[in-house]
Amino acid sequence: MSKLITTIFGFTFAVSFAHAQNITQQQESFKGVVGKDFASSKEAWVDPITAPSGAPNVVWILLDDVGFGASSTFGGLINTPTFDSLANNGLRYTNFHTAAICAPTRAALLTGRNHHRVHEGGFSHRWSAFGFPGWDGRIPSDKGTIAEILRENGYSTFAVGKYGLTPDQDATDAGPFDRWPSGKGFDHFFGFLGSATDQYKPDLVEDNAHVVPDGRHLSEQITDKAISFIDRQKNAAPNKPFFLYYAPGATHSPHQVEGKWRDLYKGKFDKGWDNYREQVFKRQKELGIIPANATLPARNPNIKAWEKLSDDEKKVYTRFFEVYAGYLTYTDYEVGRLVNHLKEINQLDNTLILLVVGDNGASKEGTLYGTVTRSPATALQQVLSEKEAVKANLDNLELIGTPQATNGNYPLGWAQAANTPFKYWKQDAHSEGGTRNPLIVFYPKGITEKGGIRNQYGYVNDLLPTTLEFLHIEAPAYIRGIKQDTIQGTSLVYSFSDKQAPSRHKTQYYYIFGSRSIYKDGWKAGLAFKIDDNKGGRLRNVSFPDPNHIEWQLFNLNEDFNEQHDLAKKNPEKLEELKSLFEEEAKKNNIYPYITWDDVADRRNTLPKQ
User: Fold this and answer.
1) Could you tell me the CATH number of the domain that includes residue 504?
2) Any stretches that span the bilayer, and where are they (predicted)?
3) Which of 67, 157, 178, 409 stands the most exposed, by the fewest C-beta atoms within 10 Å?
4) Binning pLDDT at 50, 70 and 90, where does residue 448 land?
5) What range does the domain containing 197 cover?
6) What contacts 376, CB < 8 A, 6 or more positions away?
7) Are 155 and 184 within 8 A, CB to CB?
């Protein structure tokens, strides 16, 4: 078979033309002769697909609900030494984006396509799926995943942690399993299929069956399993590369973690969320993460100034963030165990690691007051008064962060702090606060600029084409005989060695249940969405200073990266241009019909109780 000798970052390996064109085993016809007997017949064998000699391993790491300004790697006050090390020996991307909520981000990530294009407009849950092409939560077979592509190019493929893309109706041990991880290209899976789970009593799955959790924290279990998958494969086939998708439930609620991590930050945040934002903003400038002339947005008007809180409020709210900080540092520790193991088995230098620090902005689902356990004050409806909520949390202070804190999540003021330097948060597709998440790229064998910062615009669907270009694998025309749809992401490899290269991802839409925006060459138009308070929208409406006055806004992100100067009235022509572009993207990507949070509330109310 012909070989193409390829060099990337000074690392040379051979890529067969068959691999580059992705001529799979399923498509090859029989080349021998079938006679009436063996003597008159000629055997023919299909050679097993193997990756090029020396091909890198690939690890994708996707965290959950972190916030741009949480980790020390991007200026936060929460120590993440593993992330720091990867970034200091690789690249930090500061202008990278996600879909603003978990399942759409994961669908776009794994397929390299926009989330409505792959039918994941919202979630795959019964209460949020709708019978339309962009909304049914069932990724079609013509939208192949990175795991399917790499497996057909000689890689072992593993996934651990949160999957989040299996329809509720299919998520039993009876299957069908075509939309479980095993049906989307992963040789092995260990984790949970839904959007969130208890970290000590997870709804746990291994391969195609539910299993009983062993009582340890889920992050410890998935790290052990990832290591065992790698070791088992390397013992059987030492030269075969692997692809690992490592997606912990952390730091999504419930915030649960062992005592030594819960208490790690005791007293460290007593000065409150306003002080945190100021410190982080200063650190981000010092690190070069944000422009030197940037200004910090005003505190959201729904959030009280820290100095105006009562002593009880300060005590409770500080404890929530201490626990969250410990949870994030613990998550960094578990990622560190994986990275250290790769080093111990001499695989780290030949492993491309792409780490996305959050699948959306920091979570606003902890209410204005924080949540500990399931109660009438759920993340969707704040039915307790402020005084009642603070008293309830004060009574449960010792439960915060423990296995008994089954709905543990911090209050809104800390969400804004964790999202420094942006406005708004998770779910808000109209805002950088909902969609902007840091990316770390690490490949010690080839990235020579240690600690480089990249400002090129990127979106989560870019990681699939980035990985394929890096490995010199072309996107396949067919997977298992099924013709594939176009890849919509844009490879970031061009920027690895050129920090001045202009952005190649030029246009990107965002839409999450009514909230929407459109980006084009540095300009962005966005529209928030007012949710009916009577349908459980009180918390979500904190995303606007005045929920009764919602209009399209226009920002020039090249000059105003954190959206503080609305140019809609000054430049109405640009606004209309972008609004028209959004409609074009809506038609092309199956966004119609516009499904909103109000529609979700109505759907939830009409479903039979289970």
Assistant:
1) 3.40.720.10
2) none
3) 178
4) confident
5) 57-259+285-606
6) 383, 384
7) no
**555 vs 563: CA distance, rounded Å:** 6
Helices (H), 309-428: 311-344, 386-395, 412-418
Compute CA distances 552 → 139, 356, 524, 526, whole Å. 31, 29, 10, 6
17, pLDDT greater than 50: no
**Alpha carbon distance 495, 454 (integer Å):** 7
CB-based contact 410:401 (threshold 8 Å): no
**Domains: count for the chain:** 1
Q: Which two tokens stand for residue 463?
A: 């990681």
**Cα 503 from Cα 500, distance rounded (Å):** 9
* pLDDT at residue 106 in the model: 98
Long-range contact set of residues 271-274: C-beta below 8 Å, sequence gap at least 24: 271/306, 272/306, 272/307, 272/309, 272/314, 272/317, 272/318, 272/413, 273/303, 273/306, 273/317, 273/321, 273/413, 273/414, 273/416, 273/417, 274/299, 274/305, 274/306, 274/307
Residue 49 lies in a domain: no
Cis peptide before 241 (omega within 30 of 0): no
Please determine, for residue 376, whether its predicted confidence score (pLDDT) is greater than 50: no
pLDDT digits (tens, 9 = 90+) for 458-475: 999 999 999 999 999 999
* CB neighbours of residue 517 within 10 Å: 28
Alpha helices in 345-418 (DSSP H): 386-395, 412-418
DSSP 299: P
- Residue 143 CB partners (closer than 8 Å, separation 6+): 111, 113, 117, 118, 484, 485
**pLDDT of the residue at 604:** 86
Cis peptide before 547 (omega within 30 of 0): no
Give the list of residues 6+ apart from residue 38 with CB closer than 8 angstroms, or none: none
Q: Which amino acid appears at position 532 of this protein? A: D
Buried/exposed 582-594: b ≥16 CB within 10 Å, e otherwise? beebbeebbbeee
SS3 sequence of 485-521: CCCCCCCCHHHHCCCCCCCCCCEEEEEECCEEEEEEC
For residue 324, which of 62, 71, 60, 61 has the smallest C-alpha distance? 71
Whether 337 maps to a domain, the answer reads: yes
Distance between CA atoms of residues 85 and 191, nearest Å: 26
Measuring CA to CA, how many Å separate 560 from each of 276, 421, 555, 565? 22, 12, 7, 7
Residue 348 scores a pLDDT above 80 = yes
Please say if the pLDDT value at position 9 is more than 50: no
| Inside any domain, residue 247 | yes
Q: Are 192 and 168 in contact (CB under 8 A)?
A: no
pLDDT of residue 76: 98
The Cα 598–Cα 141 span in angstroms is 30
CA 307 to chain centre: 34
User: Strand pairing partners for 526?
Assistant: 517, 553
Helix (H) or strand (E) holding 352: strand 351-356
Among 18-27, 91-100, 107-116, where is mean pLDDT lowest? Answer: 18-27
Question: Residue 470 falls within a domain, yes or no?
Answer: yes
